[in-house]
Design goal:
This protein is of the alpha+beta class. The longest helix has 26 residues. The relative contact order is 0.17. The N terminus and C terminus are likely disordered.
Amino acid sequence: MTAAKHALRPDMSWILDPLLVVKGVRHGVVLSADGMVTGASPGLSREAGEGASAMMSALQGAARSLARELSGDPRTTVEQVVVATDKGFVFAVPAGPDTVLALFADHGCDMETLSHRVQLQVAALGEKAVHTPSYDRGAAS
């Protein structure tokens, strides 16, 4: 009997590096659409990262469904989710069709700076995907 081959997900932690230095950002995770951790901030425990990824995946799905229902347009997409708490903010942005970038920042964080840097990192992630040799938009599944 042979074991099924599973493609290893690349470590996407690099995308968090420029974001974790923004004043007030405590932790971040990069997750796949199905809630699997593909990158995490260094001080985040594995259990916390996995739990956060699973919950963020569910939250993204709920936000997508809610937006489509309330807008009346099934093509509506979620551009970001922000959850305000008494300790700070959860900030999540889709970073491609199958990736979400989520961060927690305290109230001292400059959200404008963070938002700008997140957009730069999302663009960098898209650029990396386009220039990866195995990436082929025309490949049949």
